[in-house]
Amino acid sequence: MNKTFTLIAAALLTACAGAPQNHSCGTTEGTVKIIDDSTSVYQIKGCIPVEKEADMEWILRYEDQVQELDARAATEPEDVDVVFFGSSSIRFWKGLAEMMAPLSVVNRGYGGASIRDIHYNYDRIMADYNPKAFVVFCDNDICGWKEGDMTVGEVFDHYRMLFLRLDKDYPGIPVYFLSWKYSELRAGLRDKQKLVNDIMKDFAESSRQVTFVDVNSLLVNEDGTIKAELFESDNLHINTEGYLLWTSMLKPHLLEVCGK
Q1: How confident is the model at residue 52 (pLDDT cuts 50, 70, 90)?
Q2: What domain range is 245 assigned to?
Q3: Predicted model pTM
Q4: How far apart, in Å, are the Cα atoms of 218 and each of 64, 115, 167, 227?
Q5: Considering the domain boundaries, does residue 168 fall inside one?
Q6: Which end of the chain is more exposed for a tag (fewer CB within 10 A), N or C?
Q7: Comparing C-alpha atoms, which of 165, 177, 181, 170 is closest to residue 204?
Q8: Would residue 179 count as lying in a domain?
Q9: Buried b vs exposed e over 19-45: b needs ≥16 C-beta within 10 Å?
């Protein structure tokens, strides 16, 4: 029998458990509303149902890289300034430690991770680190897969659940969400990428936990065209010059929150 991994049901229960009792976890018919309660903490009213199931073979496709992260965690100190995690744009950030000095950082990016398998690998990715901040970039749940892409609403709901989970496990620790980047390879997805960025920016403006960092704006010209010189030959991942630009925008935030 084909084993499947039904992550979303458990994740939805986790998200709903932290919501006020009068917020039912039923369908929102594609509409997510943000309300301000008496404690000025913004909550999402309702949940977006996700019916997809992922084959275990798919959810474990980067298991070898996650095992490498397991081994690396055993040699790294638990007390760090920043945990970077997400997909290959984090994994390929060569020179991250040098660019972020004097901050102490760990790189927990792997493969072409999606937000779905980050939920699945959550405990192993975090590996009991004690950071002062998190940085996340992961944009592979909308990347042009014929049958595998989620909707923008589903992506947002997954991120919301991730933020709730981090807030529960690391109360008061800020999360820096790096905006999804435009690229020539995924040019046909720009409208969806922009919508994700717009939603996440609005969400962050209402959040005491999440900060939206618009690193994508550094990669495009005024007319919206891609700055090809900042990308690798695959037309998807940025090169060292691109990462230096990301660092110039992100690092001041991290230095301030980490007291460096």
Answers
A1: low
A2: 60-258
A3: 0.81
A4: 33, 24, 29, 9
A5: yes
A6: N
A7: 177
A8: yes
A9: beeebebeebeeebeeeeeeeeeebbb
